[in-house]
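To assess whether the prediction recovers the assembly geometry, we first specified each molecular entity separately, as shown.
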Amino acid sequence: MLKSNCLWVHLPHFDWRLLMDDDTSQLFPNLLDLIHTGTSGCFRRSATNIITEGILLTGMTPEKSNIVTAKCNRPDGYGITDLCRPGVTAPFFWEYLDAAGIPCVAINMLGSHFSKSEVGLVLSDAFCRVTDSDADNWPLSPGSVSNLARTAKMSQLRWHPSQISEADLTWFFNNDLQQLQTFGSKSLARMVCETSSVHAAATQAIEDQSFVCHFVRYTLLQDLAFSLAKQPLRSLPVYRNAAMLIDGLVGRLVQLMQTKTTVVITASEPAPFAIICADAVGRDALFDKNMGIYDVLPTVARVLGVSAAKWAGTAYCLAQPGSTSDWQPDMQLNLPQSVGNINLDARFPPSRTQQKDIQGLQMARWTTLAQHFALMGDGKAWEMIKQLESEGLIQDQLQPLTDFVSKHVKNPKQA
Amino acid sequence: MFQHIDFIDVTLTHSPAIGRYFEGARDCQVAPSLFAVQAQQNVHLAYVLLYRNQMFGDPTYVFEIKLTAQDFDDRIFDFAVERLLELCRQHGIRYLNKQQPIVDQDEMRRFQQHGFKMNRWLVRKTVRVATILALFEKVLKRFKPSAQTLAQFSFLPYTDNTDALNALCNQGFGQLTHEHLYATGEYPSTRDYQFSTAFYKGEEIVASLGIGVEDGCAYLDPLNIASAYQDTWVFAYFIAENMKTLLDHGITESQIAIIQDNQKMTRISQKLEGKVTSTEAFIYQKVTDAQE
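The predicted structure of the complete assembly is given in tokenized form:
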């Protein structure tokens, strides 16, 4: 068994600077408390939110996990689809644990649609997505819940925008109704409802006491960042208030967990950060300066007393000075058998439109990987540019990317 | 024979089987789920495809069933349908359409036993090309356009302006039909679609007709025509001209498909001599009704 229960909350687009800035940090008492009671720090950017999330939760490079872009090749070979489990080629952490018989719950995690759980529960990123205007006629997407026995109970926890009013939402804009209407109350209602559904499901899962590990992802800030693209997010009241709400939700989950729980908080944009709190983990401490995002998962696993051979990073020791805890892993996790498709050829080739989509996705993938490798200081970035050249991209189109990569990695041609 | 058959979600492990068993899945907008009737580990007696018709708004789900064994076993079929309906209830899916129409009467009866109802049917009929031409030439005698009017219109190959044709198809059928996707060359086909044409007034597309020729027979897709031109000479002229082209190339037989709720085409088809080759039924179920 694990050394302790675990709560891992992922907060895409939570800005680390909000917690480090004396003027704002007091607005987030729960996260601040976790920083004071655990070991934390931020890491070098890894290109995009999706790539970072993939690394944090699979421990593998984006090339291996295929978590690079928001879309992936459709498993039946007919084009592209939203990133979902059949398109991900590496196991998520909870899948290793599930295969080892440790009950986990994963709620709203990236690329988890169509995931299967043997002993736990997966509510995928499609579970809370508001797809219908009528709350009474809002089917659950097949593949969004595993296992099915819990479906009916969990689907009743979902929040629908028709259940909240504009008045409920003005708080996000410091009670300025006009600003809310300019932003779009329907959009905000959808975002808030999706996050509320995640929180309701997470609360229920913790109260059930059926699970050892809990993985939860709140996407409110990510949704806001997407809607408010290119605006200075940190200073916007709606972003700050939403971050305060998220802090409150995290605080509630931590409060509900039993004592002796390992709490992990991660975020992926604008700068990835992690906070790890456990009994034997150093208090109010910073990560080793050499630690990077690849090392987060192996380090968390080490705190929990497990390890797997497949991860790309290093498991750092976060023990308090003088701690007598055994930091060697007790359990080696095996690769879950459920991951990886059987090899059946799709009989029909993709249509012309789909071929264009596939080509576009491939270009986006190489571009994103080039940025990632550049930021990691890896020469593979130039191989990605070569791939883009071979696809017919001309120098002018490639110039911004080439400039970006040149800043971080030396061009082998010039060397 | 099968003591412990089960109905399981195999999207994660067997989704490439979708391409093998469900040709129609190529057009679905939302990632489909795949379920299997499993007798033992990896022995699948049937597959069920299930997907939402559109990501947002329309909560209708579409399904299709394929038995993998050659010998059709009613018990496997019944088991698959029952479990599919149970799954829909668990997920709050209320509207379920079968993807492909049903041709076989026995199959229809079996679906009806599970509460499915027919919402419309489609008749396929073989008709001589000359008969179609004669009918529309007769109509044209009364509504013949002037040379001046005709000069504003032109015929172009079907694939010349796919975007405009897609828009016209969406207007007429609410989706890009399977036949339309073949005619635009989106998917490879054994039929020759070179006779498919589109009819333009200046830059504006007014009608299009997909025609796939195989073994000397022209398979005529349902006609796409802009609403403003539906009751005008364009309708008769466009079909007549296409029929002339087919005859010029020695193609004398055709197969037409008429959807029941297209009353105009139903009336026309009654005037055409010919032989009904198949009647296909589209079926649906309001799952909550079945529950009650």
